[in-house]
Structure formats: structure tokens, C-alpha cells
Amino acid sequence: MAASLGGTSAGSYRHAPAVAPRKILSRAAGVFYLLGGIACQLPPGDIRLSAGRNLTIHAIGYFELVIGLALLLTGHRWPRWTYHPLVAGGSILIAATIMLARGSATAEDPLITFALPMIAGTAFFSWRGAVVHGLIVDIAAFVAMTYIDLYASRIIIVLGGLACIGASVGWLARVGDRIEEDPLTGLGNRRALARRLEFAVESAARGNDGLAVVMLDLDHFKAANDRGGHAAGDELLVSCTRRWREVVPHERLLFRYGGDEFVLLLPGCSLGEATELADELRAGLPQEATASIGVAMWERGDSSSLLMGRADVALYDAKANGRNQTVAYGDPSQAAREIEMALKAGEFVLHYQPIVALEDGTVRGAEALVRWQHPKRGLLGPSEFISHAERTGSIHALGAWTLDRAVAAAAAAGTTMVASVNVSITELRNPAFSKLVSATIERHHLTPRRLIVEVTEGVYDEHDQQVITSLTEIRALGVRVALDDFGSGWSSLRWLTSFPIDVIKIDGSFVHGIDSGATSFEVLNAIIRLGKALGLSIVGEQVETERQAAVLCELGCDRAQGYYFGRPAPDLPASGLPRPA
Ligand code: C2E
Ligand code: MG
Ligand code: MG
Asked: Which of 111, 128, 235, 492 has the lowest CB atom count within 10 Å?
């Protein structure tokens, strides 16, 4: 299966150089045979050649033309081993032509064409193969030249010349290979992968065989590196590679993609086979190491980058799911099930972070931030599961739960507490989202103005009208909309103008810059003024120091949130009181 792809890099003496994929080999051999065939059809320069011999030379020529054409048209599909007799046969045919022409003035003309099998033999096969083919060429040339009685000095020059051509071509082909080799592990590098993958995708598109991509990432590699230094990290990578080499069907289809990431190409493999092999790779790891693996199958019409993207998503899922596992792309059911089960088991909790009025430091509201009290992995922050929930669709159930809990808490907390709830764009794409919001506030009898929905500026397709529709409907209910992390993306201003919003939350990076000097007052001032000019309320996020709070207040920012005023905590802070101590 994998062997059918031919060579990659890893310029080991056992392998053909990377310049030797069958596509190029078949073209080179095809052209060489065509040249030989044409040469045989040229009129002999000497009429002393008998008709019988002349005919045989022409017949050899026709034979070579047929082989050459066949190679050009279909050679990339011929098994690799067939090229050994083809290249060796080339030398024998040249020798035969020379011997048949013995006695004519042009008998030695084809000598130069021995360079062709010499080039093919040394550039396209392993060193061992190259030496054997080189010897075949030299022996065939020697026999032919002796037969036509060439002077010894000419024989030596021709044989020496051929040997030099062979050695130089073979050496150059292998030097070129090193560009595609990872020096640490000896595996093919990213560049080699790109080339092989392109080729594998092309073959998959031509045939009916599958193509699987296995993307592998060592867990906590950075920690291992930090603990034992780079030498220990390198040693781990090398020992993993050594073990994997024994497991994979074709070691040259295993690549080091970067850092601690590896990619294995499996042409002709089904998803089941690839996943099984991926598990074997994990089982073959050195004792202290674990790995996360994503597997994806090529689908008709896929480009190589799309295929890699899928494997990457699966790998991400494997990591987000707790690492040390194999996840196949397109099987989100397990992940979605896990989140839904956690919801049922009551493993999600909300922490609340106070939002204070900068003018007097009193608590006016709180932002609900979701956490997952995972039975095995401890308390997980949103970065560990939100994007995952978004992809699997379980964000809708999780979001509905968050909204319900936050609204219930705000309703129970008195009449002034405002609850801010984060919602993802995925939730806003749901046409029923505004109905969910209105049902939730009605159920808990919360005044709509006491709910703020926070949306993060981020991946948003301008044509996605539903997002704007949802926001407009929510605002029509009286619920306010905040643009979260304002200024963190590239499209902040476009968001400001195209979205119906009430509040902007200035991204923490701007606030941190107040202390470090990275943010000029002018920028912050301009953001606040712009917000004010649009009639928006402004919240400064991630305020950690008194100075940051003072500067924001001075610039006219209304509200602030951050560790300086209070960290997210399980209980809703009391509203109207000065910030928590
Ligand atoms: P966000 O909405 O911008 O939330 C503020 C984040 O900043 C929170 O991180 C909070 O813990 C952190 N933070 C607060 N004050 C400070 C400070 O002074 N310094 C620093 N360095 N950080 C501070 P958290 O809880 O990890 O949440 C991260 C993001 O996850 C949130 O960013 C929000 O976008 C998202 N998120 C949280 N809960 C939910 C949810 O229920 N649904 C959705 N869709 N997204 C959520
Ligand atoms: Mg937020
Ligand atoms: Mg934010």
C-alpha cells in the first residue's frame, strides 16, 4: 500500500533519492528510450552494414520507441521494480546496437548514450541499486567497445567518463535530498511532506484507493523540554521516531512536521486501518510520553491543504478532549456527547466577575464566565472547551444553560444587578436564539435591561445576515449587546459600524499597555471618544492596577472589570456596594 508511493527524503543509502518519484522516473526513462529508438532509425553512415544487421538495428529502434511511448503515457503506474530491468535493458540494447554495427564507420556513435542508463541508474535508485546499475552500464560498454576493437585508451576514457557521470549525478541527487530531511530525526521535513502529500492527493484523485493523514503531537512536550532542557527534548523526539519507524508500513511516509508534530501519510488505507495504526503509534511511545493524534481521510475534491486542515481539527479535538487519544475527523459525536453528559451531570459552573462603575467603584453588574468542573482534569477554563463545543454544536445546549443560570442568578440578586453573558457567533447563527433569550428572561422575570449579551469580534462572515438579525431582535427585547474584546481583531471598526450594539468592552491588551507604556493615551482616548460619539457605554477589561483604573476613569471610561476589582468567583457579587475587597 504505502510502498506504492515510492521514495521521499531521508537520504539514507537504503532509499532512492527524493528526486525519484515514479512520475519523474517514468518520464526520464521514457525520453531516454525514445532517444535511443530515434537514433536507431537514423541512416547508417556506412553501406558496408549487411541488410540483416540493419534490419535488426531498426527493429531494436522500433522496440525502444514503443517502450518509450508506453513509459511516457503509463509509466507512472508501473510498479517500481519494473524500472530495474528497464534501465539495465537499456544498457544491453545500446551494447547490442553497437555490436551489430561493428565494422561500420558509425559503430561507436551510440557510446554516448550509455550516459542515459548511467544517469537513470544512479539518480533514481538507492546507493546499492546505483552501484549495481553503474556496473551493468560499464560492463555493457566494456563488452561492446572490446567487440568493436576500440583502442584500450579510448575504452578507459569512456568507462572513466561514465563512472564520473554516475558518481556526480548520484551524489547530487542525494545532496538535493537533504533539503527535505529533518536533521534531528532523519525523517522527511515539512517541505518533503508538502511534496509527497501533493503527489499522494494526485494519486488518490486518479485511483480509487483511499488516503489517510495521521497527525500526531506529543503531549506536554514543552514541559519536557523545560524540565530537561533542549537536549532531553531532542532525545525524546529521536527515541519516538526510532520506535515509530518499526511500526509504520513505510518509514519514508512519516514526516516531522515541526517541533513535536509528526505526520504520517497512508495511501490505500481505510479510516479504520489508519486509526488502528495511530493507536499502535501511541502504544509504541517511550514510557514517559503520550501523544494526541488526529486522523482524516481524503475525500474526492479535497486539496492537500484541506485534508491537512481536517487532520488538524481532529488533532485539536484529541487535545481538547484530554489528550493521549486518537480522534478521527468527522466523529464529533463522542466530544458532543461528553459535553452533553457533563451538562446533565451538572459539571459546568458559572463564575462571576464584578463590573464596577469607575466614578465611584461600586459594583453594577457581573460577567458570567463558564467553567467545567471535570471529574478527571479539574477545573477547566473556557479556552479548553468553548471552541470545541462550537464545532460540535453542543454550544447551543451549553449556551442555553449558561444563559439560564446567569439570568436566574441576576433575578435573585436584587433589582440593580446586571448580568453579562458571553455568547458565541455560532449561537447567534441560530434563528431561534432571540426566542431563547426572551423565554429565559420571562421565565425568571428579569427586566431585559439587566441582561447584556457579549459577543466577541472575531471570525464573522459579513454576509451572515442571521447574526445581525439575532442581535437586532435581542435589542428589540430591551436586552443590551456588548462588543467584547474590542480592538483585539482586525475588523473592530467594521464591527462598530455594522453591528447593532450598546456597549464596547476595550480589550485587556490596551489596558495592560497603560502600565507598560505600550498603549498611548491617544489611542485609548480615541477608542473611548469614538465609543462615546456613537452613544455607547464603555467598559475597560482586565484592569489589574490602580493606575490602569485611574487612567481609564480620567479618559471617561464608564465601567471596568479586572482582577483589581475582583476575580471571577462562584458567587455573584452584591450590587451597589464598593468593589469587593
Ligand atoms: P471575556 O469575555 O473577555 O472574559 C474575560 C476574561 O478575562 C475571563 O477569562 C477573565 O477571567 C479574564 N480576566 C478578568 N480579569 C482579568 C485581569 O485582570 N487580568 C487578566 N489577565 N485576565 C482577566 P476566562 O474566564 O478564561 O474566559 C475567557 C473567554 O472565554 C471569555 O473572554 C469569553 O470570550 C469566553 N467565555 C467565557 N464564558 C463563556 C460562555 O459562557 N460562553 C461563551 N460562548 N464564551 C465564554
Ligand atoms: Mg466577555
Ligand atoms: Mg473580553
From this structure: 128
